[in-house]
């Protein structure tokens, strides 16, 4: 398969992989130690550092990612944290961390399935740290916390209308007319996609695109001020456009909808960097399956791409792709879509997996970096094709091989790997008592 889809496959002695990993693995100190952060100074020259995770429910991954990000912000001028979350919900956290709102976690945010992915103690702790850090800085220098994802059709429509009501009531009225095509479906956008693709319902794409174009034209003509409010509203309008396309694409196959989603993530990241200015640098938080170069995996060989691959193409060495993985432990995940969160035991990794090779290397917590051009020997052994595990928000141990493993060439997928032999689940935060779960903006079929 590798010869056909990715180029010449290297013949690697698999028995030698663990020994080479042991040679190059750098043991990790405690997350809160200065020595931990110093290990990531090597990535200070990057424009974008993308930090992955092998599951959406592992505390160790969230805490490591936060500690790395703090170092990149404090010492190396990174000014954007862009996460695999909805733009409007992340926007409430952004207002809090930049001192524009008194609170975030008492609000109705991150309340669609899976709530624990961002509504957890680990993310809250990072947000509090960022709030304190930003408090010492001028408003224009404060670090942003932004969402990249595509699922917030209803909330994004609301945000656009709320903004236009405040700056141009006539344009707001026109926007309500255009978005009226989607209004019957905004609480169940997957049903909209079904009726368009299966029952011949006329799509709402022309109206949605027109609304975005009208807003941009008004701004270019000087009729709307190009400020933070306009940027936020425009990004929400782009989310609505992408969501309309996404929910139709779901019914044309998983590759089309996956690619549309990751293209939107990449376009949003580029918009954030452009909005911030030529010196802007960003840290991206997302699942390994989004930030590792898809071209080096079974995903890419089947026609899918992701934000990591797009960043590699756009920024070259200025994009650093860091994966994270584990052998065993516990994870917050559900049995099925829209089911309750459970704390589930993670099975020990398969013998034919990359995870097992790191386990055999015998370093319980490590950073292994092959971005350095001098590490040719390490890159050579990582050029084998082995299985890699991906746990999203659903974990099905009994069908783990088919549900959670895919083939990957690690040397090309990432620049480095953080390894934690045994891990614990995130600490989910309850919703405010007077709030209930939002109606679903359906994220199926992707649990990552």
Automatic annotation (TrEMBL):
Signal sequence, renumbered to the chain: none
Protein name: Erythromycin esterase family protein
Family annotation (Pfam families): Erythro_esteras (PF05139)
GO biological process: response to antibiotic
